[in-house]
Structure formats: C-alpha cells, structure tokens
C-alpha cells in the first residue's frame, strides 16, 4: 500500500446514514471486558462535497480525490465492533452501523483471495512476544503489532525487533481509552504521543494504522483518525485469549482458528496468550496447507 502525501485544497463535508442495532462487543487485553451493546438506530443526512487535487512528479501526473470530514456534524453514538462468526469459512458480517470504508476503516482485506492478515494487540508484555517473533521469522510471516505508548516505552528492544524484522507496529493509543469518550483534540493527542514515542525508539515514523481500544468507536472518531491519515483496523476473527489465568489451551485455540478461517481474514490474537504462542506455528502451517497466504496490512 502506498500512502500519498498531497496538498489538501478543501475541507470536505460528507454524508452518511447510520443504521443497525444490537452487537456483541469484543474487548481486548487486560484493560477490557465482554459486553452486549445495543446501539440505537441513528440517521443523519449531511451535505456532501468533494475536491480533486493533482500531484505532479517529474514523470507522472496523478489525480486523487481527497476527503476531509467536518467531525462536528457526525454522529458520536458509541459503537462496539462485532462480527458474526461461522464455521462455513464464509466472510462474517459485522457491525455496519457506520460505513467503515468511507472512513478508511477495515475489518477484512481482499475477500476474493485466500489471504490472512495476522495482527496482535499489545497492552503489556507477558513474556511471549519474543517467542511469537521467533515463530514468525522461522515461517517467513509478517504481522502487525498494535501497541500502546507504555508498551513502547517499557519494551524498546522488542519494538526495535518488530520494526527491524519487517513487521508493522501500529498505534493502539497512549492510555487505551474508549475513543468516543475523547474530544477530537484528545484523540489526536492519544495517537500523536504514541507515534512520537515510537519515533523516539526507532527513529522512524510510526505506520498509520490504528486499532481502536476495546473496539469502541463512533462515526466521529473514525473521521478524526481518517483525517489524520490513519487506517482503522478491526478484525473478522478473534477469540477469548486475553485472560492470562483462563487460557483456552493451544489445542482449543488451534481448533477455533481452523473452524473459522476465511478469505481476507484480519485475525486478531493477543500476544499475552500462552495458547496463541504455542499454537501459532501449527496455525500458520495448516492455513498454508489450505491454500492461504499471509499478507501485510500494507497490501490492503
């Protein structure tokens, strides 16, 4: 994936109608919980304009439509990401109350291809990340690790290793707060301070991928992160793996993954999980046997 840096000529106000209702919210890491969220139906009609900008290089001219959203006119109804798993290897449906793609948000990749996008959430270190990196290196798989600012500051060696070995280190915010509870400026600060911590450790700009803490978002917050140039990354597979004292076991983890794999899957695993760590190599081998390949989020 190639991010284009181009001048913005106008702030664009777009429109959206939000619909849908109940959802099971999935929460990740030690910060979170499982809960049922019932989302009221909200309908908004906002005026839309667009602008086209042209960027010119020595050899090519490329036209790109850029949209920035006026977040003050967008719904702040809290959504909790969910999807409906199945055992038929079909792409699951999810919470479509907000049009994800409109705001550079994804829960799957290319569903026409037998591809898996492997991602890990990292709120704290539990001693397994180096082992996970060893497996990924031995299998030739690139993954994405969504990390918080405290993780970056406390684990600089692991952050450098992730980066040096070609993995994406994505933004999971500074304080792991629910995005809809934050103002636009507070949310921006959450992401900016995390990106600054990453650059202080690696000397590189943090890749512009964001995983909303607890999977909680609103139309407004997706627009805020979109306006910052981020892609919000949800998931089409996850399982209850974040409770370190209630691990399902490697065999149960493996079986769950193999029952629910599907085209374009964005797989969420927690790196604090002993079960995930023990099952990872076997999972990768078995999915490849089924004809699947592993791709980077840069290939979304």
The name CATH uses for the topology of the domain at 100-299 is TIM Barrel
The percent range for strand residues is 15-25%
The count of DSSP E runs of length 2 or more, i.e. the number of strands, is 14
Separation of the first and last Cα atoms: 7 Å
Class inferred from helices and paired strands: alpha/beta
Dominant shape = globular
- Helices and strands, in N-to-C order? EEEEEEEHEHHEHEEHEHEHE
The largest pleated sheet is described as: 5 strands, parallel
Write the layout of secondary structure elements.
Elements: E1 22-25, E2 35-38, E3 51-56, E4 61-66, E5 79-80, E6 105-106, E7 115-122, H1 129-139, E8 144-147, H2 149-154, H3 156-164, E9 168-171, H4 184-202, E10 209-210, E11 216-217, H5 219-227, E12 231-233, H6 250-260, E13 265-270, H7 274-289, E14 293-294
Parallel strand pairs: 6-12, 7-8, 7-13, 7-14, 8-9, 10-12
Antiparallel strand pairs: 1-2, 3-4, 5-11
Describe this structure in words.
The protein has 300 residues and is α/β, with parallel strands linked by helices. It contains seven helices and 14 strands. The chain has helices at 129-139, 149-154, 156-164, 184-202, 219-227, 250-260, 274-289, and strands at 22-25, 35-38, 51-56, 61-66, 79-80, 105-106, 115-122, 144-147, 168-171, 209-210, 216-217, 231-233, 265-270, 293-294. The strands form five sheets. Strands 7, 8, 9, 13 and 14 form a five-stranded parallel beta sheet that branches. A three-stranded parallel beta sheet has the order 6-12-10. 42% of the residues are buried. It has a domain at 100-299: Glycoside hydrolase/deacetylase (TIM Barrel), CATH 3.20.20.370. A hairpin with a 4-residue loop joins strand 3 and strand 4 (61-66). The chain is globular and about 50 Å long. 27% of the residues lie in helices and 18% in strands.
